[in-house]
Amino acid sequence: MSTLRFKAVEEASKRVPVEISVPDKFPSEYFGKYVFNRTQMSKYLSKETMNTVLRAIDQGVTLQREIADHVAAGMKMWAMEMGATHYTHWFQPLTEGTAEKHDSFIDYLNAPGGDIIERFSGKLLAQQEPDASSFPSGGIRNTFEARGYTAWDPSSPAFIIEDTLCIPTVFISYTGEALDYKTPLLKSLSAVDKAAVEVCKLFDPNVKKVYSYLGWEQEYFLVDQALYAARPDLNLTDRTLMGHESAKNQQLEDHYFGSIPPRVAAFMREVEFEAYKYGIPLKTRHNEVAPNQFELAPIYGETNLAVDQNLLIMSLMHKIAAKHHFKLLLHEKPFAGINGSGKHNNWSLGTDTGVGLFTPGKSANENLRFVTFLVNTLMAVYKHNALLKASIMSAQNAHRLGANEAPPAIISVFLGSQISAVLDKIEESSDDNDITMEDLRKMKLGISHIPEVLIDNTDRNRTSPFAFTGNRFEFRAVGSSANCSPAMNALNAAVASQLIEFKNEIDRKMKEGMKKEQAIFDTLRLYIKESKPIRFDGNGYSEAWKEEAKRRGLDCETSVPLIYDAYVSEQSIKMFEGIGVLNERELHARNEVKWETYTKKIQIEARVLGDLSMNHIIPVATQYQSLLLDNLYKMRMVFDKEKADRLSREDAALIEEIATHISAIKTNVDDMVEARKRANKIEDARSKAIAYHDTVEPFLSVIRYHIDKLELIVDNQMWPLPKYRELLFIS
Ligand code: ADP
Ligand code: MG
């Protein structure tokens, strides 16, 4: 009998919800308790320092070292009063998750050997030089200094985790290239701010700043810790590399929005209590479609902060899950045959005057502004659809996209019938039968119609990777384990670049004497025509759409390493360099990292599957086969040959079936090892990733197929790994 598996099942079935301590205050009373937010700043900083910092946050003004000293002093006092003894620069290298290196506040007062004090200067706040040479840089640091340095990002507030003050920072090389996700994100946010403000001024001269907003919806799975521990594939790759579908999975859709299981509810509540202390405004929690799959979402916020908060919540969730004897799975496709997990990125732009730029207005002027931003976004997504796909692509997400559950590996935009009708009307109008401001006013885009747009959306936008949902776009192709930055960076950069082009066009037309509204209309009409291929309101899961998308010239590439090429296309380089977000060298370096990561992920999966096949599955299958053989043999001793053969026919067939699967597994594992050896000899990161994709990865599903067949044959008592029905239905 497979003892580990049954022990795990027993342990998991006996669990009860973990007691949690419920705060005795309302969330509003302890919200942001661990964050050095504006309220805390006002207590610990002088008015002058505070104002300078706020100017840095709101207007991007550079902070002087002197000010940094003042901020550091205030921050240290607050942190020490909160019990912190250490500080760290908290940054986002091009790996998964975040990085930190803790230093204590202690220092000698004067000379070594003398008295000790707690010290934290502006210099330490502003800059740190972690010996971070093992982080991926795509070759940027090999040629120069091995080290990079981290620098304070005042626009995301510092916070305390346990005994450590965490300071959000960017991570850059000595030669100034970005080595992280945050640096280019901040640049793209600033680019879209500038570009959008210029366009906003066509409609309202008072707009001084445009914010990019992000509201992420985070999907995840929870699996009991004991069962997880009995699955080496989950341990090492975050997904099940084998496992036959459970007889019941999500067919009945009885899990979606169902009542939350008590152990999970306790976990969710604790996550919320913690999140509030970190100023993360969690709003929504519910069961997702697949068994043991769940979702949480906060109220949206400024994109840089929202990205940091998402990273923070992922790490909090891991910790809290462990307390509840769960393992949190953020992998995009941990189980075959049921839905994977994504992270829908709800994205919008809004002004400092409180206007949502994707919110239809009441007046003609407001509606023209709305259509302007909508159409420019369409154009940006159209031109850069390949790049946007590259921005969300990973070895893991490739399993999710294109399956019958998530958007296909083609980027298109869903607008819904109402908005589409508006655009069609503009498109059909011609130069000499202009749409007047009066027409616009009558366009019935008023607020009162939004519910109608939403009703229209809910049913159909599920298959769309980029859907308009009434006052924002929802970029749904982002992976559940991903850092939101690359997606938000590509999107904001593409939109910024498009808005600049639009503004230039309007300026040109107006200089030639055209009226402003006319110039805007004529330009939008052209854009609507040009960007038409990106609009698709139909069923994104259908085969017909793949054909249609190809005809429309949209990017239909499905190989992950080749999808990354879009980052270094002439068009992308021109766009990113044009707005100063990433230069060619950085783009190439980042792709190196992406290709390497892809290769490593597949390599690890291949190794784990090879090991499990040879050391876990084949021995057990052989053992069961021997039992059958033994039985067959003994039958012959009891009955005459003809009768024994007749009675043992089924056993004989099973023995043969097992032999066939074992031999197929063995041959394919050997071939996979050979394929890996050949691929490993390749130097060039891109070619190597392609080799892994084309020649190694296909073995994973072939080998799995035979193992899953064996799972159906081999005695349940002997099967070593927890089965899907156990992983997914015990909670
Ligand atoms: P649904 O499941 O219908 O998509 P949810 O309420 O689960 O909606 O999540 C929607 C997310 O979108 C939330 O994080 C919400 O705060 C966010 N959101 C709402 N309005 C905007 C907006 N204008 N810009 C960005 N995000 C928004
Ligand atoms: Mg949503």
UniProtKB/TrEMBL annotation:
Keyword Ligase: yes
Residue span, GS catalytic domain: 181-617
Ranges for domain GS beta-grasp: 85-176
One GO BP annotation of this record: glutamine biosynthetic process
EC number: 6.3.1.2
Signal sequence, start to end: none
InterPro entries from the UniProt entry: Gln-synt_C (IPR040577), Gln_synt_N (IPR008147), Gln_synth/guanido_kin_cat_dom (IPR014746), Gln_synth_cat_dom (IPR008146), Gln_synth_gly_rich_site (IPR027303), GS_Type-3 (IPR052725), GSIII_N (IPR022147)
Gene3D superfamilies named among the record's database cross-references: 1.20.120.1560, Glutamine synthetase/guanido kinase, catalytic domain (3.30.590.10)
A GO molecular-function annotation: glutamine synthetase activity
Keywords: Ligase
Protein family according to the UniProt entry: Belongs to the glutamine synthetase family.
Record protein name field: Glutamine synthetase
Organism: Petrimonas mucosa
Gene that encodes it: glnA3
